[in-house]
Request: fold
Amino acid sequence: MKIENFSLQFYEDVVEIWKRTGISITSSDTKDELNVMLNRNPDLCLIAKIDEKVIAIIMGGFDGRRGYVHHLAIDPEYQKKGYGTLLMDELIERFQQKGVHKIHLFIERHNEDVIAFYSKLGWEIRKDLVMMSFIPDKKLYKPKI
Reply:
């Protein structure tokens, strides 16, 4: 497996993996929106390839204090082979190089397999927080595209 920075030339491959793994794709996942993410975090958005085929994606964001993990997905044909752990380890290393003290991620409650995956890696469910969202422009944001 080869890990490299995500570029928009792989956008369609990545969206297909997200769809196949059940990740909710919203209006914030368009090519234009991901371009904004890539411009702000060019070294934290990664893909994994085997024989030039994209098999996995992880997007990291850094706000200057904390790191955030978005949309880690492994093509179902390649799951349970350690690729997700390798990709996460690479992202964590990159966060550490930036001096990040804490990394957060969000998982849809129904996705018990993903919760188990992260728990196995040492992530902890926070019981002291409630996640809330606010959509300032309901015409701009679309839940599913």
